[in-house]
Request: fold
Amino acid sequence: GADGIIIGGWHVGECDYVHGNLYARNLVFYIQDILETMVGKDERERIQMMFFSAAEGERFRQLTTKMDQTIRKLGPSKIRLYQQDAAAKATAKKAAKAKEKSVTGK
Reply:
C-alpha cells in the first residue's frame, strides 16, 4: 500500500465540473478524520488535497517535495504494518493447519 496520497485538483472556482474539487476536498477531510481516529493524529497528513493549475509546475514541485518530506518523516504507514502483520499471522495459521492435516490425516 501507499504511505501517502496526493489528490490534485484545479483551484477552487476553476474546475470544469464546478464542485468536483470541493467534493473531493470534503472526502479528503473525511478520510483524514478516519485515519486520525483509527491510527493517530499524525496519520491524517498521509493524504493531502492540493490545488494548482497547469501553469504552476514549480508550485507542484514544491508541494510534492513537501509531501515527500512529510511521508519520510512519518515513516511507513501503520495501517500497512497492521496489514502485513495480519497477513503473516494468517499465513502461519494456514501453514500450521496444513502441517496438522498432514500429520493427523484429518
Observations:
- Helices lie at 20-38, 57-74, 78-104.
